[in-house]
Amino acid sequence: MADSTDNCFIEIIHNPPEEILPEWIECYIIENLDPKYCGPLARDLNAILPLRISTQTNDVQSTSSSCIVKEHDTTILFPNTEHLKRIRRRPATDEEVRSRKIEDEYPTKQDSKESTGVACDIHPTKKAKINSKKKKQTSYSLDILVGSVSAVDDHLCSKESTSSLSLTTILERYNLSTSTSSFIRKSLPGRPAHTKDELNQWNTSVWPTLFYEEKTVQYKEEQLALTIEEVEMMKKGLDEALKDALAAQQQCKAWREKDTKSNNDILPTLSGVVVLNPQNGVVVSKASDERHLQAIISEEDTLEEKKSTDQSAAVMCSQWTCFPEETNPLCTSVLLAIQGVSRQERHIALGAGMESEEFKRGQVRIL
Question: CB under 8 Å, gap of 24 or more: what pairs does 223-229 form?
């Protein structure tokens, strides 16, 4: 019988409809940014072009695919950038390394001012030489994400002339502008990564993104996967349910043989149902056992049943005065198995006393 349950499990997974997110979105970034400008510039950009919009205000709504900003009774739809990081660190290109060597050999007037405090183009101080050596050893570059193309263009068109804190004025603080060659347009991921492999690929070659492993399909499937012990317990439960179904058929057949008033020779279809303890797999209740306990038995038949050594289902059913399923149309194998659990709980609670906590709670642990 154990072999009959080897291929009987079909896993049905509910897949809710997913929003169609764009694979890529167009964004503006600034390449090869001076490291000392990264922190201050990122804070300034967060003030005017935040990547993660707060949903606590009434004029901003955020969805998984887009950010809706309501302003002056108009709705502006921007791509969602919540999964993108503001700053990227990447290996420096050969051209960037060569330009840094040239800057180290021929420091500009601005660099000399920053290192010495005075304008000096020819004789840099010892501190300036140390800073130049550090720059020369730097083999990476920093890029910063300004925002999506639609959000930045909208800001440049609508807010540059009305707001004192504009993108143009912020970039001017760091000797940058939207017309420089380092201010470029780039395609970035339009959705969070689905797997760790995809995340590693994007972080290496495209742009660093935030990764929510708990929301990925792979993680959810791994959490729902059954262990070997759980599969074996399910097989055992099916085997016991099959045995209970056979016992139910024997009970019904024995009752029909005794019931001479019934003209229906067709046996009803009775299901086998058992309740297992999920912790140890012990059978707690069987529908056939509860069916026998709920049947009405005459006093004479009860005495004969106690004297009888044969306690098979056929002998027990032959002494019934009614069949539970025929007497009560709401009686089903599932309800009988559940009532069997309730019966055991009542016996245990009564054994502990009506004043006990087990009796007051109405539920006790059945081993």
Answer: 224/13
How far is residue 209's CA from residue 192's CA, in Å, rounded to a whole number? 7
Structure tokens at 155: 């800001």
**DSSP assigned state of 124:** -
Single pTM value for the model: 0.53
Burial level of 122, CB count in 10 A (0-12/13-18/19+)? Answer: exposed
Query: Across the strands, what pairs with 69?
Result: 60, 76
What percent of the chain has pLDDT above 90?
Answer: 31
Q: Higher confidence at residue 206 or residue 217?
A: 206
The SS3 call for residue 366 is: coil
Q: How far apart are CA 143 and CA 134, in angstroms?
A: 19
Read off the pLDDT of residues 29-45 as tens digits, 9 standing for 90 and up.
999 999 999 999 999 99
For residue 113, CA distances in Å to 119, 262, 281, 317 come to: 5, 110, 79, 104
241-263 b/e (C-beta count within 10 Å ≥ 16 → b): bebbbebbbbbbebbbeeeeeee
Nearest to 31 by CA among 103, 90, 97: 90
What are the tens digits of pLDDT across the range 7-34?
666 666 666 666 677 899 999 999 999 9
Flag the least confident range among 226-235, 263-272, 352-361. 352-361
Q: Taking a C-beta distance cutoff of 8 angstroms, is the pair 248, 272 a contact?
A: yes
User: For 69-105, what is each residue's pLDDT tens digit?
Assistant: 544 444 457 888 999 999 999 999 888 888 887 776 6
Paired tokens of 254:
């024995």
Q: DSSP state, 111?
A: H
pLDDT in tens, 210-219: 888 777 777 7
b/e per residue 199-231 (b: at least 16 CB within 10 A): beebbeeebbbebeeeebeeeeeeeeeeeeeee
β partners of residue 61: 68
Task: Please report, for residues 87, 204, 337, 338, the alpha-carbon distance to residue 197 in angstroms, rounded to integers and kept in the order given.
Answer: 21, 11, 48, 47
Distance, in Å, from the CA atom of 164 to the CA atom of 34, rounded to the nearest integer, reads: 25
Structure token pair of residue 296: 């009405």
User: Contact 66/83 with Cβ under 8 angstroms?
Assistant: no
